[in-house]
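Continuing the series of single-chain predictions for the mutant panel. This is the parent chain; the variants come on the following pages.
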Amino acid sequence: MTRLVVTAAAIAIFAPAAFALTPSQLLSDIDKAEIRKIVPNADLSNLTTAQPGALAAALYGSGSNGEKRAEVRSILN
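Parent structure:
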């Protein structure tokens, strides 16, 4: 019973840290570099919560570079 209480307390203490990421932190540095390679003037500093996922989907999608460029620009504008 004591283990259960200690485990539950540890989860309650450390779980919120898992959700403390800002949207821009959800993209890796490699992802950001690839996005800037496709769209050189891309501003990734103030992303909404939906934009990182959409950018990753565009980046790893099966489109051509031109299609990816258009999609990334569309997401950022």
